[in-house]
Amino acid sequence: MSLALPGAWHRPDLPGALRRHWPLLPLAATVLFLLAPLPAGDATASGKVGPADAASLLLVLVCAVRALRGEVRRLSPLGVLVLGTPAVGLAVATVTAGDPYAALPGFVRYLQVFVLVPAAVVLLVRDAREFRLAAGCFVVLALVQGGIGVVQYATHTGASYQGEDVRAVGTFGPGDVMGMATVVAYGLIVATAAALAPGLSRRVRRTAGICALLLVLPLVLSFSRGAWIATFGAALLVMVLAGIRRALTVLAALAAAGVVLVGGLGVGSEMVGERLASITQVSSAPDQSVTDRYTMWAAAESMWRERPAVGVGLKGFPAHRDGHSSLGLSSGSDTAGAGQGYIRQPLLSPHNMYLLVLSEQGLIGLTALAGGWAVLLAAGLRRLLARPGALTGTGPSEAAGRGPGIAAKDCGLIAVGLLVWQLTDFLYADIGGPSTVLTGVIVGLAAWWALPAAADADASSGR
Questions:
Q1: End-to-end Cα separation, the chain, in angstroms
Q2: What is d(CA 428, CA 351) in angstroms, rounded to the nearest whole number?
Q3: Contact 127, 133 (CB under 8 A)
Q4: What is the dihedral of CA 370, 374, 375, 379, to 10 degrees?
Q5: Which whole-number Å values give the CA distances from 57 to 26, 111, 174, 204, 336, in the listed order?
């Protein structure tokens, strides 16, 4: 798509492009395989390896082979530290768990999402063009899943919400109601950043802007409060980083689209209004879902106080939940619709990534994971806000699209926007479901932008 390779479609050379970019095929598959529908009940099933997870394993394998042949970027010491430290925290949490064998699946999953996939993305993506290819896959995924969600709302074939089968969930089903909202939000952030980036052509920016406007509707119809909040915050930051004038223009367009869709056409206006109002009622008159969330947050904190350094062990929250919860916790949440019958989903996590890590991995694990995310955010913002040529990656790297100049600013806006969205959403959600593997891709894209290659770091220091 033109968003991924601006200007490349005038003289197509598909065989040459395939030879150059073939290592990115597993990365594209990791994102796009989430278009494949899963059988009912598989969305959140433990131990299930979906098509996207299988593609991510192939991505890691390709990276390992190319690394042995010396065909990948060489990470700087900071890059090795940020990407490798979480593995240490995960190992400690697994070894010190009450049942290390039960913790092993959690170790593998966390290692996949927060170490192996991000490292593979950083090492394999060579320049801004390949970065845009990966980012463009998010937009394609969001448009297709969002389109399915809009049809579900219009035809009353979505997940059950307030007694009606109108909740847009895409192919993820009612067992993973956050799946579609997550991938649509990713695509919206990428499209918004591309629409505002000064280094892209007007045609690409206009196309990206149209995509962003189209993705507003399925995001609204997901009725996901956490996704709304995270998307608003991340999109606003991207707009400010791109420039106040551009930000005001896009903000006005998004506001007008919202008024037309919800106010003028009445698309879900009553339900959306109630959902928005519930955001401000979390302390005065919370619904059962909010009550359950507060109760599980308190349970996670109680687990951490019991073992503050290492936590109760990976995958340990469900086993310790009842012993640390009050009577206000319900037995689960009701799910139905979208081709699935009534199922009672158990509450197996606190729906807060930071508290989940704190309860299961303690301060050691939280410092290793969240500390790395903080470094990526700070370094990414610093590089994005720097004057062209003021940081590493100038000269040949700048020409290749890896530098911090105006030619690659769209990559910085996308990387920072996606990372901010993820870190904000982690306040209301945690990993789980097929879309979890995309978290690893996002951390990898953020690290690619924030962490210079070793060659660039050596050049900047005069070595």
A1: 40
A2: 6
A3: no
A4: 150
A5: 9, 11, 27, 32, 32
Contact, 189 vs 419, CB < 8 A? no
Q: What is the pTM of this model?
A: 0.86
Report the DSSP beta bridge partners of residue 122.
none
The segments of the chain whose pLDDT lies below 50 read 1-11, 43-46, 265, 285, 389-405, 457-463
pLDDT at 59: 96
pLDDT tens-digit series, residues 10-20: 445 556 556 67
Sign of the C-alpha dihedral computed for residues 422, 426, 429 and 434 taken in this order: positive
The pLDDT of residue 397 is 43
CA distances in angstroms from 211 to 191, 194, 235, 255, 321, listed in the order given:
6, 10, 14, 15, 42
Cα separation, 290 vs 296, in Å, equals: 10
Taking the C-alpha atoms of residue 404 and residue 409, their distance in angstroms, rounded to an integer, is 6
* 340-345/333-337 β-pairing: antiparallel
Tallying the residues shown for the chain, one arrives at: 463
The sheet with strand 164-167 has its strands ordered as 164-167, 159-161, 333-337, 340-345
Distance between CA atoms of residues 44 and 266, nearest Å: 33
Q: Is 328 exposed, middle or buried (0-12, 13-18, 19+ CB in 10 A)?
A: exposed
Residue the block writes with tokens 């106010």: 263
Q: Which amino acid, one-letter code, is at 330?
A: S
pLDDT 10s digits, 407-461: 588 999 999 999 999 999 999 888 888 899 999 999 999 999 998 765 554 444 4
Q: What is the spatial distance between Cα 454 and Cα 156, in angstroms, rounded to a whole number? A: 53
Closest CA to 145 of 16, 35, 263: 35
Q: 99 exposed, middle or buried (CB, 10 Å; 0-12, 13-18, 19+)?
A: exposed
175 close to 127: Cβ distance less than 8 angstroms = no
Phi, psi of 432 (to 5 degrees): 155, 140
Buried b (16+ CB within 10 A) or exposed e, 26-58: bbbbbbbbbbeebeeeebbeeeeebbbbebbbb
pLDDT of residue 386: 82
